[in-house]
Amino acid sequence: MDITQFIASSRDKALLYGDYSTYRTQLAHRLLNIRKRLRVATRHRGKYNHSANGIKAEQVAENVGYVHLQLLTAERAFAQAMAMKAAHAANKKGITGHTRSHIVSRLDKAAKYAVHLSDTLQEEVSGASEGDRLEARAYAALLRGAAAFEKQAWELCLANYAAVWAIYSALSSSAPTRADVFRDLLTDTLEPSLRYAAYQLKMPRSKPIPIIAREALTSAKNVAATPDPAVIVSSVNKIDPSILQPKTPATADVSESLESSAPGTVGGVVASTRTLTWRSREVKIEDAVIASAWAALDLAKARLEAQLVAGGAHMAPKDKAAAYDDVLTVSQDAVDATKAAIDDLRSEGIPQSDPNMQLLYIARTAANYEMISDRIGRNRVLTGAHDGALVQAGPSLTKASRKGGKKSQRQAARLETPGRLLARLKEKVVLYDGTLQSLETVKELPGVAADVELSEQLNTTAKYFGALKALAIARSHTLVGNATNALALIKYAYDQCMEAAPGLKAAHGISGGQETDSPLRTIHVSAADIEFLQDLLQAELQRARALVDIVKQHPLSATARAGALPLSETLGEYPLGAVDLDNIVAYPPRLQAIPVKPIFLDIAWNYIDYPSKTRGDASAAKSTAGNGQTTGQAANATMTPSTQEQPQKRGWFGFNR
């Protein structure tokens, strides 16, 4: 029957070029056509037959059109509700009570048709398969969940959406041909709605969706057109037992076995820790949500480190940066958990001098520091090796070089164009700006300003990234020919690096150099990175000074590189000063427009009367008029048609047309 495919394709086709009002109009026409085919349509000026929408299992077994009749009827009510919601969404007052009740009534009507279809398909006489019955239950639960969402009945909404999520997850693994349809519904509709309903019920964001779905199904009643949710759980477990079960070491892969074997985890579920270390201070965490978030953060970092070690140097910078997304999400959950705990204590009237409040402030500072540190680490990964100090502009292989051959070997080393190099440098500057802003945010955290050692370390780190930013801008000036500006920027970068080197090396000595053993990039800069940048800036400084000396000795070459026209293009002008013999022609040659007379001017030449020709004829007539009229009359009398002026030939290239 393909219930989900039928609904998804109908919505996609209608919403591709219109809205829900258009979808409702299309459904009305389709309903009329299918009623005519099934011979249940109301006759002209006849009484409406309400029992025509009530189908039986025997009818479904005979013709699948009765299933489509129920689906289209439910979809029409759903489309009307969504059209009203979209029409009132732009109002400043929002959706009022009367409009909301009207929307809920339309969704309830759609859910009734879907529940009736699900009950009909459960009978053996209908001939429906187990997958069709599950899809019908999922569709009924989807509409029930939408109605509960508008009613703001979050427990019922969560239970229905959990049933839909479990069914579609199981069907996506058992039906590979339709897996894309189920996955699109899961990612676009179900998972955001599940998360929002769980947020309204004050569930932690770090809680996995399978556990949320399992808990919601076990505690709910009358979900997905069945009074016993255990039926849905058993059906899902028959298809795929791992959907609603926590991951175990026996069923986990390499990355998941790390999760099950990591300290602080039990059966794949993150356990809570009780202590937190921040700047040689141990903080006891009493809130279970914060403790679970910190344990999940440690687990995510361990998983990320294992992924980076497995990938090694073969991973591209964008792939490495994408691997940081899970860590950033978990660290944001830890920040939100600490903020929620502080807000709860504030609402209870507890002063800031309370020891529990002070411990929460320390935990909040530590959580924000870890989140910003991971964000800076991702930026460092995106900039490339040695934090972007090297120019990533190696030779790009062409198609011929990949195939091989003598010609391809000569064309293999083709460098990138200056425009693309400037674009790369611009991206690096944006990343450096983001890193510097993140460092400023760290300085504003509570308790950081009082920590003198940490403040000095942040200042030296800011100078390090400021030197990298100045180096990137200097290289862009070098590409466009501004050697003097490049020298000034490189000198500034070198001074910043020399000021930051002692502080970073001292911080590296205190930490014991442990960050060099880990592939993770954080806010901490290693001694090898600062030493590499020192040597590089010293070499770049000497190179920039040499370029400035060359420009001073050859000023004409500098002007030619700055955009002066070559001598071959200014032959019509007399040179005012000395001729620049180093700028005779443009090399390398480039494509440019040249003035060309269009061909239609050649054709128009035959049809133009020029003023000079008219003035010449008039002056000749005036000179002959002085000799007398008789002479003119005699001349006119002696002229024959053959001696008269012949008409000018017309046409293209002199041919008559």
Summarize the structure in words:
The structure is a single chain. The protein is mainly α. It has three domains: 122 residues, Signal recognition particle, SRP68 subunit, RNA-binding domain (Hyaluronidase domain-like, Orthogonal Bundle), CATH 1.10.3450.40; 100 residues, no CATH class; 258 residues, no CATH class. It is 65% helix and 2% strand. The longest helix has 29 residues.
Mean pLDDT: 78
Can you tell me the residue ranges where pLDDT is under 50 for at least 5 consecutive residues? 247-273, 394-413, 512-516, 634-638
How far is it from the N-terminal to the C-terminal residue, by CA? 72 Å
Order of helices and strands: HHHHHHHHHHHEEEEHHHHHHHHHHHHHH
In the residues, how many domains can be counted?
3
- How helix-rich are the residues, as a percent range? 55-70%
Q: Give the oligomer, counting copies of the same chain as homo and different chains as hetero.
A: single chain
Largest sheet: 2 strands, antiparallel
User: Strand order, biggest sheet?
Assistant: 1-2
| General form | flat
In total, the number of strands is: 4
Total count of helical runs of at least 4 residues: 25
- Tell me the Rg in angstroms: 40 Å
Strand fraction: under 5%
Question: Can you give me a brief rundown of this structure?
Answer:
Helices cover 65% and strands 2% of the residues. The protein has 657 residues and is mainly α.
Fold blueprint:
Blueprint: H1 3-17, H2 20-38, H3 57-62, H4 65-89, H5 97-121, H6 130-151, H7 154-174, H8 179-200, H9 209-219, H10 229-239, H11 254-261, E1 265-266, E2 269-270, E3 275-278, E4 281-284, H12 288-311, H13 317-322, H14 325-347, H15 355-383, H16 399-403, H17 406-411, H18 418-443, H19 452-480, H20 483-511, H21 527-553, H22 555-561, H23 599-604, H24 611-625, H25 629-638
Antiparallel strand pairs: 1-2, 3-4
Helix pairs in contact: 1-2, 2-4, 4-5, 5-6, 6-7, 7-8, 7-9, 7-10, 12-14, 14-15, 15-18, 18-19, 19-20, 20-21
Subcellular location: Cytoplasm; Nucleus, Nucleolus
Biased composition (Polar residues): 621-646
Keywords: Cytoplasm, Nucleus, Ribonucleoprotein, RNA-binding, Signal recognition particle
